[in-house]
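User: I've been trying to design a sequence by hand for this structure and keep getting stuck. Would you show me what you'd pick, starting by listing the structure so we're on the same page?

Assistant: Good idea, let's start from the same input. This is the structure you sent:
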């Protein structure tokens, strides 16, 4: 620590400075990324939704960020946290899955894919603890061996958790977590509903998160991202369907 500079934290006091952090700087607020991403089961697969706002502290840096990535034909990940770091790790995972398939002549098992994601998060732990590299993914997968769809979420240390119906992450997720349970308990299970029905409720939760969390972008100007995973593979949801669903959400409600 420089002489005459008062320490702001224990890291400053003991002279710890991450490589990505400038001398005298504070790791907090650097490369942060507020968001809301969620994955929802429906009758034929999994629907993944994400807002498109990227932030740094209280600044809106970009309103067209793409936070949903396909790792292979049967695996989709949505990212929250450090955007740059998460993109880097997801690219590595995508190449790892492809390398395995080409060298072993068959696709990596779902358990193998999940282990790779956990290992990547464990390897990123030092950057996460420094405050500049934390990211938390949610993962949707089609397990071809057992013909079933799975939804997983992770903590920063790589521990994985499974929810058969939904998962959410990001700064706005805490605002809507209870809404998932309310909808599930007041109607049919997510996995028994149609894609369009689940899309409407997912967009409604994304809209609520945008109202309650300043780091989550609304979709009055920019459409959110929506991705479908089913037995035919994964693909972006047709824009016309997404636009029509968002118009329903944004239309004035009758008094």
């Amino acid at each position: 620590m420089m002489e005459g500079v008062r320490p702001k934290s224990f890291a400053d006091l003991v002279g710890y400075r991450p490589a990505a952090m400038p001398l005298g700087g504070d790791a907090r607020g650097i490369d942060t990324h507020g968001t809301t991403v969620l994955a929802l089961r429906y009758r034929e697969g999994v629907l993944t939704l994400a807002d498109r706002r990227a932030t740094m502290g209280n600044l809106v840096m970009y309103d067209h960020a793409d936070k949903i990535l396909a790792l292979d034909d049967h695996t989709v990940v949505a990212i929250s946290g450090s955007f740059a770091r998460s993109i880097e790790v997801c690219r590595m995972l995508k190449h790892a899955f492809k390398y395995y398939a080409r060298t072993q002549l068959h696709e990596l098992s779902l358990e193998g894919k999940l282990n790779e994601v956990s290992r990547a998060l464990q390897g990123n732990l030092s950057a996460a603890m420094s405050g500049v590299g934390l990211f938390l993914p949610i993962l949707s997968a089609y397990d071809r061996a057992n013909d079933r769809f799975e939804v997983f979420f992770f903590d920063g240390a790589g521990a994985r958790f499974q929810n058969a119906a939904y998962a959410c992450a990001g700064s706005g997720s805490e605002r809507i977590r209870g809404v998932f349970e309310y909808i599930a308990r007041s109607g049919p299970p997510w996995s028994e509903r149609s894609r369009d029905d689940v899309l409407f409720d997912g967009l409604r939760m994304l809209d609520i998160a945008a109202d309650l969390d300043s780091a989550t972008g609304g979709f009055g100007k920019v459409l959110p991202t929506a991705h479908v995973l089913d037995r035919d593979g994964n693909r972006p949801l047709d824009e016309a369907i997404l636009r029509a669903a968002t118009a329903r959400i944004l239309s004035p409600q009758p008094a």
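That's my pick for every position. To get oriented when you compare it with your attempt: Residues 33-249 form a domain with the Glutamine Phosphoribosylpyrophosphate, subunit 1, domain 1 fold (CATH 3.60.20.10). The chain has one domain: 33-249.
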